[in-house]
Amino acid sequence: MDRRWWWKFSGVLVICLLWQSAILGGTRKLAITLDDLPATKGANSDLGAVREFNRKILTALKKHEAPAIGFVNESRLHVPGELDERIAILQMWLDADMQLGNHTYSHPDLNTSSLREYQDDVLHGEVITRRLLQARGEKMEFFRFPYNHRGTDAATRDAFDLFLHERGYRVAPFTVEHMDYAFNAVYVAARKGGDQEMMVKVRGAYLDFLDTVFDYFERFSVDPWEREITQVFLIHVNEINAECMDEMLQRLEKRGYSFISLETALEDDAYQAPDNYLGRFGPSWMHRWTLSRGLPMRRDEPDPPAFLWEAYQGLRTGG
Q1: Which residue, among 270, 281, 283, 263, has the nearest Cα to 223 in the 3D structure?
Q2: What radius of gyration, in Å, describes the C-alpha atoms of the chain?
Q3: pLDDT at position 234, please?
Q4: pLDDT, tens digit, for every residue of 233-290?
Q5: Number of Cα atoms under 13 Å in the Cβ half of residue 223
Q6: pLDDT reported for residue 224
Q7: pLDDT at residue 2 in the model
Q8: Residue 43's pLDDT is what?
Q9: What's the rounded Cα separation, in Å, for the pair 313 and 31?
């Protein structure tokens, strides 16, 4: 055997093994955030189902040693005769060593609400959660905007940012989301209709779309930062995530991710960049940072499969 060929081959092999080791060793970092605790509005509102959604999600998170933060809409606790049981679901999160944050009381839209009404809703939405955290010697730290709408004018945005600062809040950004609400709506409709074939199809498409979207945002971050930044993933407490969370985390681990808290994720210098976006949409912070640099909005974000989007639009329009 030609020794020169062997040394070249060995060098390539070592590089490949080092690359594989780095990926499998979890060099990528990800914080997981879940909105709409105790369960999203479109989910099954039955207490037993809501409790089971949360149990499955927490079991998967603990299995994969993935710290997470759940953002609470306290209006969803106030179901007649069920308040204590629904508060106990929040306690489940704390007992699992997860964090809780404020997602407002009733999930209003800052783009369409008055500033005073919105601020009142934030204060109303922290009453129970703050008390639970204080009982553990912890504080309410993070706020997540419903719809990720920060207002359509600078005066509203700046006034509300000051309000949050005075209340001791930090804004919870996100860089990756994958339209889980659309997949969940179609999945739930299929289950209600007894369409097992469609449920399997939606579940498979949902998991595949996870990889598609992470491919996109991983590449996206390299453009401005010249590296892959620490990512923050936004999903919701709903049926499809309860069913898929374990496999989702497995797939993310195969992509080389290890899981960290939101607070640790925000130590990445990328999150110190300004967010000057004003508009009617609620895009990823990757897009917000792009616009804040004076660059045009990217229009190449992947769409979900056509069958899924058509089914979702049909549900929205009653078709």
Answers
A1: 270
A2: 21
A3: 98
A4: 999 999 999 999 999 999 999 999 999 999 999 999 999 999 999 989 999 999 999 9
A5: 12
A6: 86
A7: 52
A8: 65
A9: 30
User: Can you spell out the DSSP letters for 118-132?
Assistant: HHHHHHHTTHHHHHH
pTM summary value = 0.90
Q: For position 1, what pLDDT does the model report?
A: 46
Q: Which of 225, 210, 208 is nearest to 177 (CA)?
A: 210
Question: Could you tell me whether strands 99-102 and 68-72 are parallel, antiparallel, or unpaired per DSSP bridges?
Answer: parallel
Q: Please identify every stretch of the chain with a pLDDT value under 50, giving residue numbers as ranges.
A: 1, 3, 5-25
Residue with tokens 């800052």: 110
d(CA 58, CA 94): 10
Q: Provide the pLDDT for residue 9.
A: 45
* Residue ranges covered by each domain of the chain: 28-317
Decide: 220 and 298 in contact? Cβ < 8 Å: yes
Do strands 28-37 and 231-236 pair parallel, antiparallel, or not at all (unpaired)? Answer: parallel
- pLDDT at site 223: 85
Q: In sequence order, which residues have a C-beta less than 8 Å from that of residue 127 and are 6 or more positions away?
A: 74
β-pairing, 176-177 vs 231-236, is parallel
Which CATH architecture fits 28-317? Alpha-Beta Barrel (3.20)
Query: b/e for 171-195, b at 16 or more Cβ within 10 A?
Result: bbbbbbbbbbbbbbbbbbbbbeeee
Quote the tokens at residue 272: 């110190």
